[in-house]
Amino acid sequence: MFHLTTERPEDGPAIETLLDRAFGTDRHAKISYRYRSDVPPVRQLSRVARADADGRILGTIRYWRVAIGGHDALLLGPVAAEPALKGRGIGVALIRDTLDAAAWMNAARVVLVGDIGYYKRFGFAPAAPMGIHMPGENPDRLLAVALARNAFAGVSGAVERRRLLRANRLKAA
Ligand SMILES: CC(C)(COP(=O)(O)OP(=O)(O)OC[C@H]1O[C@@H](n2cnc3c(N)ncnc32)[C@H](O)[C@@H]1OP(=O)(O)O)[C@@H](O)C(=O)NCCC(=O)NCCS
């Protein structure tokens, strides 16, 4: 019914429409969007689910580079599936595929804002007991998963925006 591919630049408008339908057009006011403004998502982990029949976009997932107490981390989201096709495995496929890819890229830790009932199947657990918080966000909804052994040892504090790398700053100047 669907297959996964890397997101292409021309997918942008269809992804925005899908996200508006999945989360509402006020989604940009969410706390997690503070980490997404003015910075690009991680290109290799921006993937979509496409309909086998016509290539239409049925699902989307993106990740963002953040820091926790000075340690690199990834912020997963938004992830969304076509509302009419909920429960067909699109969300699970996108999340499993990209967490595997993130581990291959040597990412050590991932956080997200979401329901533990859905994300525990991927190994996510509440981040608050680890001493990790997202300012302004409901602590019960901040979840974390380790992609490497002891990835959270000595890692605590606020989830922070990552500053642009020096090379990118120079390029943008
Ligand atoms: C959440 C979402 C991405 C899941 O994608 P999906 O393709 O519908 O889900 P899947 O088919 O992969 O998985 C379905 C399973 O997840 C469960 N599930 C879905 N949402 C859930 C939730 N909020 N809490 C607990 N379980 C949930 C279903 O009950 C089903 O369980 P089962 O496998 O035991 O039958 C999709 O429903 C969506 O786009 N929702 C709106 C946007 C959103 O909330 N995104 C997540 C942000 S935290």
How would you sum up this structure in a few lines?
It is built from 4 helices and 9 strands, in the order E-H-E-E-E-H-E-H-E-E-E-E-H.
What features would you describe in this structure?
There is one protein chain. The protein is of the alpha+beta class and 173 residues long. It has one domain: Aminopeptidase. The protein is 22% helix and 30% strand. It is built from four helices and nine strands, in the order βαβββαβαββββα. It has helices at 12-23, 90-104, 116-119, 166-172, and strands at residues 2-6, 47-51, 57-68, 71-81, 109-113, 125-126, 132-133, 142-146, 157-161. Strands 1, 2, 3, 4, 5, 6, 7, 8 and 9 form a nine-stranded mixed beta sheet that branches. The longest helix is centred in the middle third of the chain and has 15 residues, at 90-104. The protein is globular, with a radius of gyration of 16 Å. The N and C termini lie far apart (45 Å). It binds coenzyme A. The site of coenzyme A has 17 residues, from helix 1, strand 4, helix 2 and helix 3. Coenzyme A is lined by residues 22-23, 77, 79-81, 86-92, 114-115, 117-118.
Number of strands: 9
At the third CATH level, what is the topology name?
Answer: Aminopeptidase
Give the C-level CATH assignment: Alpha Beta
How many domains make up the 3D coordinates? 1
Overall pLDDT, averaged? Answer: 94
Q: What is the CATH homologous superfamily assignment?
A: Gcn5-related N-acetyltransferase (GNAT)
Just name the CATH architecture: 3-Layer(aba) Sandwich
Cα radius of gyration in angstroms:
16 Å
* Strand portion: 25-35%
Compute the number of helices.
4
Bound molecules: coenzyme A
- The topology string of helices and strands comes to EHEEEHEHEEEEH
The best one-word shape is globular
